[in-house]
């Protein structure tokens, strides 16, 4: 998946879970990972029933393997387990006979193929940074970043991405490693996307919230990954936030995207209902966002990309658009931290770069104004935004992120 070039899948506001017979619309064929599936159980499935279901899955899987003549290897079919709030699910490798049988079980809510998730950035030539000046000014062309010295102190910013080079000097020792969902992958940022995103969110030089604590969560090895790995990182992150009572001081940034996924929708709803703040990228296909996840979820803050003249970036690699896009921020020619050294910087374009400006704004506002609920800080971001200044919004909300600096 390219950095918000394609991650496909995610949420819906504080609405109830969508009750489906089990099958749902599949992602595009090119995005499907053959033989791998994500299964969500109904919200009222208790712990004992989940365990019983997993045993049933193992039995069905073993029986169907025994019937086959191709000597398919037997292994643990349930490879990933997810559980937070009302969301319970798992991922694994199953043959078609097993999947068809699982769809008939009464406790199963959704069955979806595992699919490719992509980041949303495009590397470009070096140019002076301007995104920080943009977020502290009502008018284009500003050259200074004006902010309160609280700078997100006491907040926690989770970057679900390719990992973060936590030793980079721009993080000033405030970046820590959280979780690695990518099997057989080192606890490092191999692609550079996550480090760049984290730098924009909370770097000392490049960041909006210069005193926030950054937690790196690796779900992608290069520029594409699987939804099941992204779900694993999201599951860990939500549980970490809730178990440490950080709901009013933590934000999740996901500069990732994919085609629409009901399972993602339900996972985001469950996280929102636990009080978790989420900021995501709109994607870079220059296409409508109604079938893009996680942007289509009403629980998230979905961010589009503007150029320095406050015009939505169009054309090839342009910002996605539509009523699901809640706000715009700088995302073109953004300078931030590089994963290649502890002092380096690089330039990237995309909604992946716009999203951490707003995630950083969430942490900045909580550092300035005090801890606040996900709903309250979301409303505050919208309240402060500058209306009517973005051109070529294509039906998106015409609002530009602003930090409230007087």
From TrEMBL:
Matching CDD domains: Peptidases_S8_PCSK9_ProteinaseK_like
Presence of keyword Translocase: no
Domain Inhibitor I9: 36-119
GO biological process, one term: proteolysis
Signal peptide stretch: 1-21
Keyword field contains Phosphoprotein: no
Cross-referenced InterPro entries: PCSK9_ProteinaseK-like, Peptidase_S8/S53_dom, Peptidase_S8/S53_dom_sf, Peptidase_S8_Asp-AS, Peptidase_S8_His-AS, Peptidase_S8_Ser-AS, Peptidase_S8_subtilisin-like, Peptidase_S8_subtilisin-rel
MF GO annotations: serine-type endopeptidase activity
Pfam families: Inhibitor_I9, Peptidase_S8
Domain of life where this protein originates: Eukaryota
One of the record's GO cellular component terms: extracellular region
Active site: 161 (charge relay system), 193 (charge relay system), 352 (charge relay system)
Peptidase S8/S53 domain: residues covered: 159-379
Keywords of the record: Hydrolase, Protease, Serine protease, Signal
Family: Belongs to the peptidase S8 family.
Protein's recorded name: Peptidase S8/S53 domain-containing protein
Organism: Cochliobolus carbonum (strain 26-R-13) (Maize leaf spot fungus)
Lineage start: Eukaryota, Fungi, Dikarya, Ascomycota, Pezizomycotina
